[in-house]
Amino acid sequence: MFCINCGATLSESDVFCINCGVKVDAAPEAPQTASPPEAPQTATPPEAPPVVPQAARQSGAPSYATPGPQPGIPPEPPFGQQTGSAKKGLTKKAKMIIIIAAAVVIVCAGAFAAIKLLDLGGSTPQMVSTSMPPRDDDDYESDGSSSWLFGLGGRKDEGATTTSAPASASPAPSAAPASPTAPAPATPTTAPAPEPVAGGRYSDYIEILVDSGIMTEPHPMSQGAYSTALNWCFTMVYDRLIDYHGEGMYSPSLAHYWETSDYKTYIFHLRDDVYFHNGEKFTAQDVVSTWLLGRDSVGSPASAIWGMVVSAMAWDDYTVVLELASADPGFLFELSRYAAGILNHYEITSGYDWGFTVGTGAYILDDYYYVESVFLERNDNYWGEPPITRFIHLRYTPEQAMRALMMEVGECQVGFGIAADELTYFQSYYNNDFSVLPIVLNHPNSIAFNMNDRLTGDYNFRMAVLHAIDKDMMAAVAGNGWCEGDNSGTLWGYETEYRNNYITPIPYDPDKAREYLVASSYNGEPVTISIASQMNYIAAEVLQAQLSSIGIQTDIIIYDVPGFFAAWQTNDIQISIYNNFFSLSADSAKQNFTPGGVYNRASYNNPDVTALLNMAAETTDARAREDMYFTVQQIIAEDAPYSNLFWRMTGVVLYRGVGGIRTSPDLNNIDLRYVYWVLDG
């Protein structure tokens, strides 16, 4: 399963996230818990040069209308019920498992269907009280002074910066977005689209197994809405003003272009052809009302984003001005996040419990059951590229073995959180009914040296250790085939912007390691390696063997998360193996490399690095920001408080004919809007 906060891969026995420390719903087990809690701090998109908008969303498959029932093809199950479809041609492994578990599955399926039909166990979102101004059309009429808008971004002779150019003077009303074409995004990838076979058709219904934690109130204003699966729902139900595509590249969404001259005041020009799920037309007032609600919904996913804004004004129906307390180039990145979706002014001020769930997105929230399920229905009036699948059911299944079995018997068509050995099975050449879509996670799995310790603070000792590590071997053993060795020279997120790929890596060289060891202060004493997860325990065993080969004796200490955090705070850890947390924004480097940073497990403190990171966060020139982040990575490589060992990987199991899923190294950014299932002809 995945962490409900940061998306890290967990095992069934984890009590706390191995990456960020958030508690999960599982039984405790000592070696399978890890790192202290924190909330990812993201921000950072650049900058001064005009950014070419990304083309409209791409599903990776033709947008065919779904025909009615055809001869020889079983009809789709009623929406809200389980598919109950059994996979044909089961493998020998499945037959043995099914004999034992079939009764359990059937009983569970029947109970769930009964609950759905009786509408029992439902829960409605909590209404967050806010003071919303009444809608007054007079507030949106221009007073004749709107020419200042051009001075703030439209007139190049006044030194303004245009962040994205408009497609035209006004957006063209059509079913698809009217944004210009742009280079394909670097970050998301799409499951390959199988060609529909003769006589085949697209299914109206797809059931998706999720393991990312309890699904609570399905809207971004709720304090309990911290779940990776809910973040996927937010992307499906709500649209944001802009979308992020990696390396500081943004594309239009509800805003078809935007302007800023100082990165403190942002002007967004909105589409005029967008409607909410309730039929209300999208206007600037909806953005203002979303800001007010988000600002006041303290502790919610949306509050960290909208709390950055000190004022919002609807200049007219399709122009909104957002003002920050100070210049922040990272604000655009925040606006592109899954929790920055725009809600409907009328619904959130009407007092209706479900008002918070009304968006403009490709899917409508049809129903949800607290903890268990979210049901989504296609928005056939969507302003953008229409989705293919009519109904999608996100189904929370905490048991890892049950998830694999449900995929094996055809109960679901998409499976997240499948164990590494099961992923290998589903991916095997003889298993023609399934494919696996691999995902390399963004967080480097690294070794950290306590810079305050006499021995590990010794540069020669650190160099001895790093030259003794065979990273490819470690990745192969620790990940059971689902890790990727890292032989780059930098410690940075896999697809975090401004990654410096020009740093010379430290090679695996045991002879050089012994030379550094002789020059170090090491006197044969045992060195401790501290870990707090099963995968890192295996990596620690590999490291122990490799260090022993050059004459370094080590002891492995296994902590639970609170114990690991306490030992780090009291300076009792020498070497540790854990995840550095990086978002797709370069600003997340602060958490890893500055004093007091929540992921600075090396107690690293270089004033030059701290100054560069602080300046980079405020610099509006894209090239200058890149130079600063590149320099930070070079200094880190030279000081060597850390080194990345390998990248963790996970995989999405897909039943035959399923495609259209857009993945990302940040699991929160997975896009399910264009998933489809081609049925056999």
Structure characterization notes:
There is one protein chain. This protein is an alpha+beta fold and 681 residues long. Among the domains are: 142-196 and 217-385, 3-Layer(aba) Sandwich (D-Maltodextrin-Binding Protein, domain 2), CATH 3.40.190.10; 441-649, Dipeptide-binding Protein, domain 3 (Roll). It has 17 helices and 23 strands. It is globular, with a radius of gyration of 26 Å. The two termini are 34 Å apart. Residues 22-190 have low confidence and may be disordered.
CATH level-3 fold name of the domain at 142-196 and 217-385: D-Maltodextrin-Binding Protein, domain 2
Shape: globular
In CATH, the homologous superfamily of the domain at 142-196 and 217-385 goes by the name Periplasmic binding protein-like II
Task: List low-confidence stretches.
Answer: 22-190
Summarize the structure in short.
The protein is an alpha+beta fold. The chain has 17 helices and 23 strands.
From the structure above, extract its key features.
681 residues; alpha+beta; eleven-stranded mixed β-sheet; 25% helix; D-Maltodextrin-Binding Protein, domain 2; Dipeptide-binding Protein, domain 3; 17 helices; 18% strand; 23 strands
